[in-house]
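Researcher: Here's the sequence for the chain we discussed earlier.
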Amino acid sequence: MNELERYYRVLELEPGATLDEVNQAYKDLVFVWHPDRLPKDNIRLQQKAQEKLKAINEAREKLRSFNGNSANGKHHPASNSHSHTQSPQPKKPAQTHQPPKQSPDLSGQDFSRANLSNKDLSGRNMSYANLSGADLSDTFMHKVILRGANLSEANLFRANLLLADLREANLRNANLIGADLSGADLRGADLTGARIRSGDRLLVKLIGANLAGAIMPDGHTHS
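Model: Thanks. This is the structure I predict for it:
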């Protein structure tokens, strides 16, 4: 993998993505990894966020520069003078193997009672997986696919489930205190008995979440 491909990978893009795609990916990732979205007392996650932001910024600047030069035709002389080193044929296999690394298929897997605390499971396909009783506290699960998954009695304390797919998921009696479910798709999910409050105070972020047809903690169905 050459340096240019590495920058695309940092932004979770395929090589050759447009400048608009680069800019949008940059905005999405900065939003996800902003330190203010992560627990202040979790030093490991805070440090990881700083490293991610540094890499994201560098990748965006390098790709913007490359795309700008490409649009002006300025990169052609350099490409011709180094054609044997910049455009090797082995690049294509690297692209072929990239998607599985980003989104491994964990659908239907048994993680019941597993300790997955502080793990980075972002983008994983975990549909219909068994996560009952699993410890997912402080776990990063941005855009994770958990459709139909069993999360009953799971500990999701301060878990980041931003834009997660939780359609028809079983969240009965799960601990959701401090979890961020902003933009998540919770249509048809069962949250009966889930912990989301301390007294009258709601302690779960549900900004932009889709709750149509979801069974709420008190047993009523959200319209």
